[in-house]
Amino acid sequence: MTMPKRRLGAEGPTVSAIGFGSMSFGGFFGPADDDTSLETLAAVAAAGIDFWDTANIYGMGRAERIVGQYLKQTGARITLATKAGIIPGPPRHYSNDADYIRAELESSLQKLNRDKVELYYIHRREEKRPVEEVAETMGRLIEEGLIDAWGLSEVAPSTIRRAHRVVPLTAVQNEYSLWTRLPELGVIQTCEDLGIAFIPFSPIGRGALGVGDLDPQSFGSHDFRKQNPRFLEPNWSENMDYIRAFRRFAEDKGVTPPALAIAWVLHQGDHLIPIPGTRTAEHLADWAQAAEIGLSEDDLWEIEQILPAGWAAGDRYSDTQLFGVERYC
């Protein structure tokens, strides 16, 4: 089957209903190598996924460079998003300063072998800088033809409304999945009301809802999940009881757990375009057909009984990782 399409915002292009996130190319979830990443991108393209997401901070430019290399080698036509705003430090901090955002965009374009990107996100909002000022900065980049549209990441509904009034947003990207459902308390509805695409990242729960059991004890020292409370004991063992029940339901339906998890996200609204990521083509095959899975009202009810809202033990981020994420509930 052909990958279904969804519109990226009220005025944006149509893109594959499932996108691809390249965070894992930067080594956040274990060792990554360029050849394997390029093979993964080839599999992504073959699956009909033409909406790709990256960021300047993923591997400190490594993910952007790999995407740029693939695009230069193949001439693939995709809708591309990248991000800026996080400065790793130490200490980690954020900047939405106009000169910084422009300089990072120019650096990203060079690595991506592009003269523009279709979507440019503020990766984290700088708390003390009015978002209206940031919107004006992004509006100038649009006027200059360096970006087609702009977005925000990990923000509250109030921030979305304020920014959208100045320069309309095309997309908002927050974590959303069966184990992280905070966006249901305002972000999803606000995006729908304003004609903004909502882009759920980590729709497979950072691998927790994958095909096999993860072993957090085996995570490398640089694995992003090593500090996530949900992957620490006693939370992890409690979470696995729920996850195994979900796996059994997926198996009864004849689909993989990650594909079912993504299908559930897709059923939460036509303006949702999830961007799962993976390091390998093998894992991509586990969920690439998720948009083909139909879910009945009975299926959705059953999933809700197995994984009710708030089921996950532990926070999605450690206190250090949570710094910079807007809280609104």
Condensed summary:
Residues 17-306 form the NADP-dependent oxidoreductase domain. The chain has helices at 34-46, 62-74, 98-112, 131-143, 157-166, 187-194, 235-253, 257-266, 281-284, 297-306, 319-322, and strands at 5-7, 14-16, 20-21, 51-53, 79-84, 86-87, 93-94, 119-122, 150-153, 171-175, 197-201.
User: What Rg, in angstroms, do the CA atoms define?
Assistant: 19 Å
Proper CATH architecture:
Alpha-Beta Barrel
Instruction: Name the structural class.
Output: alpha/beta
Unreliable segments (pLDDT under 50, ≥5 consecutive)?
Answer: none
Largest β-sheet summary: 7 strands, parallel
Distance between the first and last residues' Cα: 40 Å
Q: How many domain modules?
A: 1
Order of helices and strands: EEEHEHEEEHEHEHEHEHHHHH
Write down the CATH topology: TIM Barrel
What is the CATH class designation? Alpha Beta
In CATH terms, the superfamily is: NADP-dependent oxidoreductase domain
Number of helices: 11
As laid out across the biggest beta sheet, the strand order is: 3-4-5-8-9-10-11
Pfam families: Aldo_ket_red
InterPro entries: Aldo-Keto_reductase, NAD(P)_OxRdtase_dom_sf, NADP_OxRdtase_dom
Domain NADP-dependent oxidoreductase: 17-306
Protein name: Aldo/keto reductase
